[in-house]
Specification:
One of its GO terms (molecular function) is ATP hydrolysis activity. The chain is α/β, with parallel strands linked by helices. The chain has eight helices and nine strands. It is globular, with a radius of gyration of 17 Å. The structure holds adenosine-5'-triphosphate. Adenosine-5'-triphosphate binds next to helix 1.
């Protein structure tokens, strides 16, 4: 029997008279890399937020890591929100340790792991740099590392590729693959099919508030017209 890290059924959200998310269901197999694709405004962020318990659904249910209460599995989940933000006065290493501490990781262990991650990604030169001095893309990499530093079982990344240059996009891909090898499940949203094709086992396409496709990347390749599959890169 397949084990699922995320089981969302019929998630629905209304905002001031319009339906932002319309009965969206997602089942993310444990240990997989899963992509949620769709254009701007499709409803991806709202769907992820409902799954994580940040936004209350108007209808539908979701279970994270087998649990109906997202708060009770908080320390086992890593989340990169769409709106990025770190304390500008913190150095990269502190920011990462701080994010880990918010999810229950020991501060010294967070600092130790931060150094390892940064070195592995070739980012050691910025480890003692303050966030306010960094480019947006570099700060995003720091926040990404911070969101997974506590070795979560489920990692949810909202548009993680947006705003990254090709070198950092490759670093992100490497991190995602490495986290999966460690045993984590990764769910990320994107509006670029090429990112999903390179990484994902399965994808769901959300457009105009509803799920329009769900399946493997190979099924998507066979079924979807070229103009849908190849939207321009960021
Ligand atoms: P993007 O890639 O642009 O972030 P998305 O697929 O993540 O798009 P959402 O952010 O979920 O889409 O937004 C879906 C729709 O709901 C959009 O039309 C958005 O403007 C609207 N929306 C989102 N949050 C709110 C809110 N708090 N109040 C009113 N409308 C909202």
């Amino acid at each position: 029997m397949t084990e699922y890290s995320v089981e969302a059924h019929g998630l629905t959200k209304y905002f001031e008279g319009f339906t932002a998310v319309d009965h969206v269901s997602l089942e993310v197999p444990a240990g997989s890399i899963y992509g949620v694709l769709g254009p701007n405004g499709a409803g991806k962020t709202t769907t992820l937020r409902m799954m994580l318990g940040i936004v209350d659904p108007d209808a539908g249910t979701s279970r994270l890591l087998g649990n109906h209460k997202p708060q009770s599995v908080r320390s086992r989940v890593g989340y990169l929100p769409e709106e990025r933000g770190l304390y500008p006065g913190m150095k990269a290493r502190e920011a990462i340790a701080f994010m880990g501490a918010l999810r229950g990781l020991d501060w010294a262990e967070g600092r130790r792991r931060a150094a390892i991650f940064m070195a592995e990604l070739g980012l050691e030169r910025v480890i003692d740099e303050k966030i306010r001095k960094m480019s947006k893309g570099m700060a995003q990499m720091v926040q990404l590392i911070g969101s997974i530093i506590h070795a979560p079982d489920l990692i949810v990344l909202d548009e993680p590729f947006s705003g990254l240059d090709p070198v950092n996009q490759e670093r992100l891909e490497m991190l995602v693959r490495r986290e999966r090898e460690r045993g984590a499940t990764i769910l990320f949203s994107t509006h670029v099919m090429a990112h999903a094709e390179r990484l994902c086992d399965r994808i769901a396409i959300i457009a105009r508030s509803a799920r329009r496709f769900e399946g493997t990347v190979d099924q998507a390749r066979a079924l979807l017209p070229m103009q849908v599959r190849y939207t321009p890169r960021d």
